[in-house]
Specification:
This protein has 221 residues and is of the alpha/beta class. Helices cover 38% and strands 13% of the residues. The protein is built from 8 helices and 7 strands, in the order ααβαβββαβββαααα. The strands form 2 sheets. It has a 5-stranded mixed beta sheet, with helices on both faces. Strands 1-2 form a two-stranded parallel sheet. The longest helix has 20 residues.
Length: 221
């Protein structure tokens, strides 16, 4: 197993050696103080692969989290680097939340965290520890679709449907904050959610339909 002072000898070219030394630089102090060659697992997969190739051991650090998702509390041991969207899809097997751009641009992965719409590809699962999360699967209550879901159904606010779960979650928050939005306010509220199919007009109509449904329910009560 290589020693830290020997890193300049690792690799087949100067470029590779420089990259490896740069990747190891942030971990040198920890490793020297601990006297170990194991490195913290709070690193990206590419860096991890380079370190493993160089002969270092990567310590598998885990974090215990407790998250209430759609009314059910889940306790899991996870890697600190696990994204919330990966936790929802791969650990909890709730695949209604979609992975799109993975750069926070498209909004396909939008969920509610403590009542706020969040792009779950931008949040670590560890950051949701102790939080309440609602995904598209938990929006309907008592077997009855949420008014936004009904609005999208009635006004065909979708085509391929890939953006739809995130679009519905974002629209639900718009109506929580503003029960009677204008078309312009709806379009502004959905700026963070991209759709490549519909041209958005049917989506705006779907949200307006949902607003009317929610208003009529409120009056009925």
């Amino acid at each position: 197993m290589p020693k830290l002072q020997d890193t300049e000898k690792i690799g087949g070219s100067g470029h590779k050696v420089f990259n490896l030394k740069f990747q190891i630089l942030n971990f040198e102090i920890w490793a020297r103080l601990s006297g170990k060659s194991q490195l913290n697992h709070l690193i990206c997969p590419a860096t991890e692969s380079s370190l493993l190739a160089a002969g270092y051991e990567v310590e598998q650090m885990k974090k215990q989290i407790s998250v209430t998702v759609n009314g059910v509390t889940h306790q899991n041991e996870i890697e600190p680097r696990l994204l919330l969207v990966q936790y929802i899809r791969d650990v909890l097997n709730l695949t209604g939340t979609h992975v799109g751009c993975e750069t926070s641009l498209c909004g396909a992965c939008t969920v509610m965290v403590d009542g706020q719409a969040v792009k779950s590809c931008t949040m670590l699962a560890a950051q949701a520890d102790g939080s309440t999360v609602t995904t598209i699967e938990g929006l309907a209550q008592g077997g009855e679709l949420h008014p936004v879901q009904n609005g999208f159904w009635e006004h065909h606010g979708l085509q391929c449907g890939y953006c739809t779960p995130g679009m519905i979650m974002a629209a639900a928050q718009i109506l929580q904050r503003n029960p009677d939005p204008t078309d312009e306010e709806i379009r502004h509220g959905l700026e963070g959610n991209l759709c490549r199919c519909t041209g958005y007009q049917n989506i705006v109509q779907a949200v307006q339909c949902a607003a009317k449904k929610m208003k009529s329910k409120s009056v009925a009560r």
